[in-house]
Specification:
Length: 180
């Protein structure tokens, strides 16, 4: 029982680091899969692709990223619950979400023996949210390039139409009398 009452920071950091590495690995694999799926879908986009389809692609990508984060927080929450570090799965998941998002309201806490896990969970959230943010920047860059291309094409079509409307037809060509 004495080993449970005396905190061992080396053990806490070791356990936390192992889970941190697992979460980062899962995030990397998940991000790669989501990015690959987005790239495959994006390859099929043409100027004729309707806006609703583009919006659906964006929504699906964001939903996949959110699901990935929920899975990663379960990787943290399950051992806390299974090892009875936090006795309720709901409280365990709530605690992990608070730490992972760095909200840290502190309504659920870890026992003193495991309290160093909280900041490590927060580190994993910072890493993974940063990585997710970079993927969203990349996705939105593709959308921005596509929107600019579409806008340029529309401008060219409008300019051609204006030119055609402004150009006189052969029978409308004005002739001037000689000397006038």
């Amino acid at each position: 029982m004495d080993h449970l009452s005396n905190p061992d920071p080396v053990l806490e950091i070791l356990v936390g680091t192992v889970f941190l590495v697992v979460v980062i690995f899962v995030h990397g694999a998940g991000i790669r899969s989501i990015s690959l799926q987005f790239s495959k879908s994006w390859a099929g986009v043409t100027e004729a692709t309707p806006h609703w389809r583009l919006n659906l692609m964006l929504a699906a990508t964001i939903a996949a990223l959110a699901i990935l984060h929920f899975a990663e927080t379960l990787i943290w929450a399950m051992p806390l619950y299974v090892r009875a570090i936090i006795p309720s799965m709901r409280d365990s998941y709530y605690y992990v979400l608070e730490s992972y998002t760095t909200l840290g309201e502190g309504t659920v806490t870890l026992p003193d023996r495991w309290r160093l896990l909280g900041p490590i969970i927060g580190m994993s959230g910072l890493f993974t949210f940063g990585w997710t943010g970079s993927v969203l920047v990349s996705v939105m860059t593709d959308f921005g390039k596509f929107d600019r291309l579409r806008a340029r094409q529309e401008r060219v079509i409008e300019a051609k139409a204006e030119y055609k409307d402004a150009r006189p037809l052969d029978h409308e060509v004005a002739t001037f009398p000689e000397g006038g």
